[in-house]
Design brief:
The complex is a heterodimer of chains A (about 300) and B (about 425). Chain A is built from 11 helices and 14 strands. Chain A folds into 2 domains: about 220 residues, 3-Layer(aba) Sandwich (Rossmann fold), CATH 3.40.50.300; about 60 residues, 2-Layer Sandwich (Alpha-Beta Plaits). Chain A has about 300 residues and is of the alpha/beta class. In chain A, a hairpin with a 2-residue loop joins β4 and β5. Chain B is built from 17 helices and 6 strands. A 4-stranded mixed β-sheet of chain B has the order 2-1-3-4, with helices on both faces. Chain B has a two-stranded antiparallel sheet with strand order 5-6. Chain B is elongated and about 105 Å long. The chains are: A alpha/beta (about 300), B alpha/beta (about 425). Chains A and B meet through β1, α2, β6 and α3 of A and α1, α8 and α17 of B.
Chain lengths: ~300, ~425
């Protein structure tokens, strides 16, 4: 049976003494979807992960469902988890390391041994299977870690700040690995500070601030919900002060000799401003855009601070 | 294959197939060989330096004869005056000189040597002269041989006899001079020392093992693939198998050594002293000691696992396990004290405190100052304590490994306890 929803997280709540670390987080992920979880440090992302991973039990009836049933210990063989801070057994060889983690995920010994070469080649690990982990460079250790997370082709992948500390080559390899699993139907959640990563590969996102879910939805859907309140203009007929005087413009930022960014009071002013600026003539750029995720992130974090 | 078994195998493989295990097994044996070697060299040196060339000064023929007959180890120079002997000594031609002073009633001597010359043993000369003088005195007093023997045997000795009453009401007498007692004490000392050594080694291994996984966050990956309690039990069983392997290695080495020694006829030599018999008499010390050892090691390794799971980085492990190391050390010292004073209240109470029992009880059993009721009680108390330690370690393992703090043992545990409580309430 093919499920429409693989992972469903309902009203997750976790308190530590007086602190409500997570307060009502809910989301759903379909097969082959990637969800980005964004939020500042200490916002509660890791605690949400820990509840999904069954390290912590949700309070007030919160539930983590997998294929419509409580996930619980079924998680062990279907998840691939990469914690934010990472380590390996320094004294083990690459093979022993990957084999141990894969077997704990329920993989067969021979099957794992067969796959190690393929993954080492794919991630371009410099070294032999029999090399001790402590002899590898940091970049190669990261690759071994990624292999250990993905080798059993998990149906659910949870990555806590996966790109932090990775060099661009390894970031790319990880990105490729994630996209491959997506194409095979795995559901992927990752947390990140880097909004570019989220915008680039995520289908949806959830933003958590002080434990509360402040945004949730498809990446485009979330951006659009803030309205197309920015206009990028490239024109030689207008000055900054002229643009500032236009009806509906709240702020103008000069980005170059003839390039400006206009912030609107309301997206509806866009059409009138277009007509006014172009007056039916050619201009090289007129692009009305919603705010970027980064801007939304800052906006939301700022709003919550002001409350 | 169950996941617990995967953990057990990994812990076992990692610890046994390593040079550190090899050295850990052979370390005590090498130490023992080195100590025996040094002891042997010292004894050899003592033997060679206790005999040399001695000049006899002022000794009449009779005395010379007695000395020459009584001391076969030293060589004697007989024709020197005191002055000549002194200069010979200075020139190191001789190792010392003995000036005899003999009157009608007395016979004595002064032995002269240089601080740097050999430590000549004059014991046999003294013995020979004493017998000679005694015989002369007896002759002067007109005593016959029989009377002399009577005087010689008229010393008073007090032997301490311990009256041991069994549960069936039978009383047996055991002399404190009985070699069985000494052998039993030796066995108790051995048991206590081995337990101490094992506890120190494995407390460190298991706490390091867990702390390293927690500190490197490998623990989080593991706990997302296996339950915390299965992981902890797997680790404990794995370490248990490593301990058994070390013991097995010693048994094999012992059997090999025995085979080798048999070739040297050493056992025939030992047979003269009835060693086998005395060791058999120590069987209960060994057997009960082994039980106490197993329970003791389980108690200490459980606590070590618990403490290791509270540590956030491996650098803090030693700081964290210091309290148990000192507890074990205290137990070991109470054990040594028990060797000399078995009925002291500190020893009696200490032997019933589970953390001290494995060190102290073997000495009390060896000295037979403990009744079977007390032994049974100590077993029950130790087993209950062991179960509590294991249980506490297992139930707090998950919350311990999820809490990171650098604020010390108590504070970290407080946070872990709060987490455990909130988890209990949530589920």
């Amino acid at each position: 049976m093919r499920w429409l929803i693989l992972l469903e997280v309902n009203n997750l709540v976790k308190t530590f003494g007086e602190l409500r670390a997570v307060d009502g987080v809910s989301f759903k992920i379909e097969p082959g979807q990637i969800m980005g979880m964004i939020g500042q440090n200490g916002s509660g992302k890791t605690t949400v992960f820990r509840m999904i991973l069954d390290f912590l039990t949700p309070e007030e009836g919160g539930k983590v469902l997998w294929e419509e049933q409580e996930l619980g210990k079924r998680l062990y063989d279907i998840v691939g988890y990469l914690p934010e801070e990472r380590g390996l057994y320094e004294k083990l060889t690459i093979e022993q390391q990957i084999l141990y983690f894969a077997r704990l995920r329920g993989m067969n010994r021979n099957e794992t041994l067969k796959k190690i070469d393929y993954w080492m080649e794919r991630f371009a690990v410099k070294g032999k299977r029999s090399d001790k982990v402590k002899t590898l460079s940091k970049g190669n250790q990261q690759k071994v870690q990624l292999i250990a997370t993905l080798i059993h082709e998990p149906q659910l992948v949870i990555l806590d700040e996966p790109f932090s500390g990775l060099d661009p080559v390894n970031s790319d390899l990880l990105m490729q690995g994630i996209l491959d699993l997506k194409s095979k139907g795995s559901s992927i959640i990752f947390s990140s500070h880097n909004m570019n990563n989220v915008e680039e590969i995520c289908d949806k996102l959830v933003m958590i601030h002080n434990g509360k879910q402040v945004l949730y939805g498809g990446v485009e859907e979330v951006r659009e919900s803030f309205g197309r309140t920015k206009i990028f203009v490239d024109t030689d007929n207008w000055t900054e002060s002229d643009l500032n005087a236009l009806d509906g413009v709240s702020k103008v930022t000069k980005r170059g000799e003839q390039r400006f960014v206009l912030e609107l009071l309301n997206a509806n002013y866009g059409e009138a401003i277009f007509n006014h600026i172009t007056k039916g003539r050619y201009i090289s750029t007129f692009s009305q855009q919603p705010p970027t995720l980064e801007e939304i992130f800052k906006m939301k974090a700022g709003e919550a601070k002001d409350e | 294959m169950s996941k617990a078994w995967i953990v057990i195998k990994e812990v076992y493989r990692k610890n046994v197939l390593s040079w550190s295990f090899f050295f850990m097994v052979l370390g005590p044996i090498i130490m023992l060989l080195v100590i025996t070697g040094i002891g042997f060299l010292i004894a050899q040196d003592q033997m060679s330096s206790s005999a040399g060339t001695v000049a006899l000064v002022n000794a009449d023929d009779e005395v010379r004869e007695v000395i020459l007959a009584g001391d076969v180890n030293n060589a004697f120079v007989l024709d020197l005056t005191e002055e000549e002997a002194k200069s010979e000594l200075n020139e190191e031609h001789i190792d010392g000189y003995l000036v005899i002073e003999r009157t009608e009633e007395s016979l004595s001597g002064n032995f002269y040597r240089k601080p740097t010359s050999k430590d000549i043993n004059v014991g046999s000369i003294q013995q020979a002269l004493a017998t000679f003088h005694l015989n002369n005195t007896a002759e002067l007093m007109g005593l016959n041989q029989e009377q002399l023997l009577q005087i010689q045997s008229s010393t008073v000795e007090i032997d301490t006899i311990i009256l041991q009453t069994s549960d069936a009401g039978l009383t047996t007498e055991i002399s404190s001079q009985d070699p069985t007692v000494i052998v039993r004490q030796g066995v108790a000392y051995g048991v206590s020392f081995i337990v101490f050594m094992f506890i120190m080694t494995y407390v460190s291994i298991i706490s390091q093992e867990i702390a390293a996984e927690k500190g490197s966050r490998i623990m989080e990956i593991i706990l997302s693939s296996i339950s915390a309690s299965t992981h902890f039990i797997g680790k404990m069983v794995g370490i248990g198998l490593v301990i058994l392997t070390q013991l097995l290695a010693y048994v094999i080495l012992f059997l090999l050594a025995r085979l080798f020694i048999q070739q040297l006829d050493f056992f025939n030599f030992l047979a003269q002293f009835n060693v086998g018999y005395y060791l058999n008499q120590s069987g209960n010390v060994l057997l009960l000691g082994a039980f106490y050892a197993i329970i003791g090691i389980l108690i200490y390794t459980s606590i070590a696992g618990f403490l290791g799971s509270l540590v956030s980085t491996t650098e803090d492990v030693n700081k964290m396990i210091t309290p148990i190391v000192f507890t074990a050390l205290a137990g070991f010292y109470i054990g040594l004290y028990a060797n000399v004073s078995t009925n002291n209240p500190v020893v009696r109470i200490g032997s019933q405190i589970p953390l001290f029992t494995p060190f102290v009880m073997p000495f009390r059993i060896a000295a037979e100052t403990v009744g079977s009721t007390e032994i049974v009680i100590s077993f029950i108390v130790s087993i209950i304590f062991m179960v509590i330690c294991l249980w506490v370690s297992i139930i707090f393992y998950k919350s311990n490994v999820l809490v990171y703090s650098d604020k010390g043992l108590i504070n970290t545990f407080k946070r872990s306890f709060a987490l455990w409580k909130s988890e209990r309430e949530a589920s």
